[in-house]
Amino acid sequence: METISFSSSAVAVSSSSYLKPKTKFFNPLYIPPTKLTASHRLQFRRLCNVKATTLKEDDEKVVVEETFQPKSFPEEANGGPGEPPNRKPSSFIEKWVIKVEQSINIFLTDTVIKILDVLYHDRDYPRFFVLETIARVPYFSFISVLHLYESCGWWRRADYLKVHFAESWNEMHHLLIMEELGGNAWWFDRFLAQHIAIFYYFMTVVMYALSPRMAYHFSECVESHAFETYDKFIKEKGDELKKLAPSKVAVKYYTQGDMYLFDEFQTARIPNTRRPIIENMYDVFMNIRDDEAEHCKTMKACQTHGSLRSPHDVHSETVASEDDLGCILPDAECEGIVDCIKKSVTASHMNQRY
User: Is the Cα torsion angle 285, 291, 295, 297 positive or negative in sign?
Assistant: First the structure.
């Protein structure tokens, strides 16, 4: 019997996240899920009762989980390079594939950072405007590819769509704050940010279609740089920021209205546990920095295939029934087009044998 393990940083997809295709025509990419007994379902339900870790609040410092190290390659004891602990060990080839993917991502990220360092050495708000224009693009790409997969009937991921939209909503408000501060005043800055965003969108679409793991890691690297940039800015100009009135956009986003989407992108937190107080620009940038840390952890969790789940579903007090298979990852799941084709060929070969 195959054993399914869960880590504290990742939880399974809910039943609403995956709907078995109802089409009756032949689909070479669909593999029927394994039949499970009632005892198996009960076991899986118990295993899925996982509590996500939460950050400890601190007014001066945001602690990013130790597992968030996009520029390092964990040893095999931690489940292979770039893999969360307790994950099923990867093959030797897969480990090197992950290393290659991460090396490419780090090289691309470092190259862009060096260019931004030259162009925006002493222009903070324009740099933030460019960063936020770029940072929201991957979530559009992820949603586009996931919608394509739904249309093809390959798989459906409601939780992924919800969380990625909430992430893009959060980054959009970061962008609005930077525009309010005058970060987009120069034509050159707008031109550069928009054209990088267009190239980044199509690049991420291709990357996500081929290897979601690689695309998520690349986004993690980008969010990591954003976190470090804001953290450095706060340390250097914290006293000055405390004297400035807060952004109107920030006050409205962080303290008013429906906070569902604000909680939704923070998959490592329990909903309703983070409610910022915005009194000055120091508080604004502190919360933007905190947001980037949350994005990093969500992108880290996404690198474990099928692990992402809406925090509102994870922490629901409603106990699932014995027939609820929401915590079980169906066999029909596959990672990207390459993996879908591989599983399709394997399934065809097995059918011919039997």
Answer: positive
Q: By C-alpha distance, which of 62, 45, 92 is closest to 289?
A: 62
Please indicate, yes or no, whether the overall pTM of this predicted structure exceeds 0.85.
no
Structure-derived torsion over alpha carbons of residues 243, 249, 254, 255, reported in degrees to the nearest 10: 90
The encoded tokens of residue 208 equal 């996500």
Contact 183, 189 (CB under 8 A): yes
CB 203 within 8 A of CB 142: no
- pLDDT tens profile 54-70: 333 444 444 444 434 44
What is the residue type of 36? L
Identify the CATH number of the domain in which residue 213 sits: 1.20.1260.140
* Sequence-distant (≥ 6) Cβ neighbours of residue 294 within 8 angstroms: 55, 265, 266, 267, 268, 269
Q: Which two tokens stand for residue 331?
A: 């066999």
Q: Does residue 86 sit within a domain?
A: yes
Identify whether the C-beta of residue 159 lies closer than 8 Å to the C-beta of residue 326: no
